[in-house]
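Two quick folds needed for the group meeting slides. Do the first one here.
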Amino acid sequence: MRIAIGISGLFRSKLCINPVNSVKKIVNRFNADLYCHTWSGLESEVPDIFKKEGMFFTTPEPTINYHPLLDPDATTNPKHLYYRKNEVNKEQNKFANKQIIGYSNLYDKIPKKYDIYIRTRWDVMINPKFNFEKFYSLLTQGPVGFMIRESGPNYFPFRKKEGRIVPKVKSKTKNNDWHDMLSDYLIMHKEEHIDTKKIYDLHDKKQLLGSEFGWWQVLSKSSGGDGHTSVYGGVILVRRKRKIMLDENFKLRRVFVN
């Protein structure tokens, strides 16, 4: 099984855990080749260990002159419609589709010789004991995305070795994590799931959605919109001002810092 991992976005060196070790754990867990990307002018932020020739790339940062959650009208997801109606987190999410453009830029550079492509971020940490292999077979239906909810009705603990598939149902509740959205902390996909030319065209037409809605739009919608799988478990985001630690039993501990 040949696997390529594509990591893109901003490398935030001031995270509360060592992001270099986190990336190494991801690569070792999947026994994969690593390809990296950031925006032109920000390459000095990325440690030299990730700048291998032919495996590290930069491209110009795109200009986003529309709001990727409020302007395009491309889903019936109740959470997305709620955002559009109430303009929730308008400033926070105004660049939410840059991650999709950045990964597309990187994917264009990755040799097309792999069985599985994995998209993730610099600020993701995985549980190395999690059973990701269980979900490889689902890639025949569509892309598979992973995340956890740290609170609320969809809470799922990071330390669990087995994931929980989000029910593939369409409903009007904003707690639905599958309907017209793809969990995006870490996404597995096949070559046939992505068409970067269509992604750039959506952006040019100011129709590229952001966040989970955008990943669904570019990886699932074109093939019917229902073949994707979202999974709780395996990954967590390492955000600033929160120190995330795992003990020897992979139990999650949080310490908030100033």
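Then this one, please, same format:
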Amino acid sequence: MKVNFPGFLVEQNRNGSPRYRVRAEGQKGRKITIPVGPDDPDFANHYYAARSGETWHPSAPQSVERSLDWAKDRYLSFLEKMLSAGQGSKATLRQRRSILTRVCDHLDSEGDRYGDFDVEAPTSAFLEVRDAWADRPGAADNMIKTVKAMYAWLIERGMVKINPAAGIAPINTSPKGGAIPWTAADLKRFKDAYPKGTTQFLWLTLQAFTTCRIGDAIWLGRDQETTRKGQIYLEWQPRKKGSSFVSLPMLPPLFEATRTVKVVGPAYILGKRGRPYKTAESLRNQVRKWCDDAGLPDRSSHGIRKAMADLMAESGATQHQIMAVMSHTQAKTSEIYTKGVRRRILAEDGIRAIAALKW
């Protein structure tokens, strides 16, 4: 690609999408990643800022002093600085930005936007948002968790005195907490709605036969395939910090699903324009729509991961086998799935001891 911008580089991410970087002028070895290419109208702003060693941000409306928008902007700015210093996670920042933006854009019963309200909001205000998201209990609880974290940060800096979300209890009552594991009936219902050859069927098969997180589902593709002794494997380093490398054989259902789709790209899962999803959140939102349309409004991608872990435990897989499949590095994480199975087996053996008792 030929361009007239000195120091501008076009590289490739491991999922096949382009990555744009600019060498900072006079700062040997320093390269700054910019979010757009030469065809974007904001490219020049990003390019010249990067050449001078800075990052360009589009001008945004100034938030009202001590409003909820004001608090959100300061909290996210802090998280961005922490990320630049090598602390924190891009995924966490992206998720918190998305959640807080939606909270600020929430409208009350009179049509007023939350972001314009005073930061010293009452608990009832956030209860209203939680209840509005009650059809997605996992998302509702993540929202409360994020709001609690933001207010804890504000309190630590003397900006507010009370955390209005501190006493709000979670509403997700699914087993083990978090996402609800899919049942065999759920899987059948989804496959009935989306048959072989559809993107939805491929997504379900990929999640089920790799147990990958949705953050990896957006970029896993044929580049991660390798052959060992005639068997095709999928091998990848999960993007979640602290995860272990994964190497799994591609079982026939997954191999077939990846070969029956009409459009092939750098990732298995492609959007409507034949391109990979840019973020886990964008695919997560799409999955939510697919599940809603299939009559499964409370199911999620992470629920498949839990279901497969439960299935492996029920089938006799050891704790360390589950760790290897699911990229866990801590045994206690996989123990969640094996502990209940072990207790049930012990109970079965124990009750047999009194089977001969005459009653």
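Slide caption for protein two: The chain has 13 helices and six strands.
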